[in-house]
């Protein structure tokens, strides 16, 4: 399993535990794993590298709608979006094992340390965890507050070397270092901010704590861009079409989406959608270009 997905899973399962749904999430994941094993056609689509990740995510979203809880659904969509297609069945099996293990020790989920790893893997875990926490913030104002709190905390850590030494000491017990953080943040940070800061310590040894917290500030700033969908279309969309598109795109990226339409006659028909680093090209122009390429290849 990718470290990015492992970090996201840690946050999603933690959220499920806080909502009293950890056992349900584990059951949902196990049920989907059985479906992948028993339905050859579904398995073929999920592992087919020729099928765009966005399409595979949409298929999984349709399958899970109304059948699985919010944490397990978003976790499976995230895994489908990021895991290499050929590795997906194995990754889903690992997610089931992870969820069932944490359900068995639910009271310890929020203080569990991740296994030892290198710098890149630790950074990817934190990024995955942060993505899930940021997804759960529904208002832009909440993201702004989290960004400000992370920035202020980074400045505090930078200004106090002894604090940096205490919370960053990998030889010290994790529970003690988290207790120091909790005392420092009590009444001064929102739950989402506290979760992110705590996970930086749980994810593994971080050599540059200040730099890592500053990087989380950047991720929070980028989150606002992931909530804006630029839609290029040949004609304006009516309000009902905008609403349906916003709902569909929100399900695809697991966050509220604001649709902004750019009229572009070159699109001809259909639409070109950009959300953050995700691009969905459903234009007639694309289909015409593919037809042209096929005709040229046939000469």
Characterization of the model:
- The chain is α+β, with helices and mostly antiparallel strands and 299 residues long.
- The protein is 66% helix and 8% strand.
- The protein has 3 domains: 109 residues, Peroxidase, domain 1 (Orthogonal Bundle), CATH 1.10.520; 89 residues; 73 residues, no CATH class.
- The protein has 14 helices and 4 strands.
- It has a 4-stranded mixed sheet with strand order 2-1-3-4.
- It is globular.
What are the main properties of this structure?
299 residues, alpha+beta, Peroxidase, domain 1, 3 domains, four-stranded mixed sheet, 14 helices, 4 strands, 66% helix, 8% strand, globular
Task: Quickly describe the structure.
The protein is an alpha+beta fold. The protein is built from 14 helices and 4 strands.
Name the helix and strand elements from N-terminus to C-terminus, one letter apiece: HHHHHHHHHHHHEHEEEH
> How many helices?
14
CATH architecture of the largest domain: Orthogonal Bundle
Low-pLDDT ranges: none
Q: What form results from the Cα inertia axes?
A: globular
Mean pLDDT: 88
Helical residues, percent: 55-70%
Oligomer: single chain
**Which CATH C-level class of the largest domain is it?**
Mainly Alpha
CATH topology of the largest domain: Peroxidase, domain 1
Pairing-aware structural class of the strands and helices? Answer: alpha+beta
Order of strands, main sheet, comes to 2-1-3-4
- Radius of gyration based on Cα positions: 21 Å
Question: Care to count the β-strands?
Answer: 4
Q: Tell me the distance between the termini.
A: 44 Å
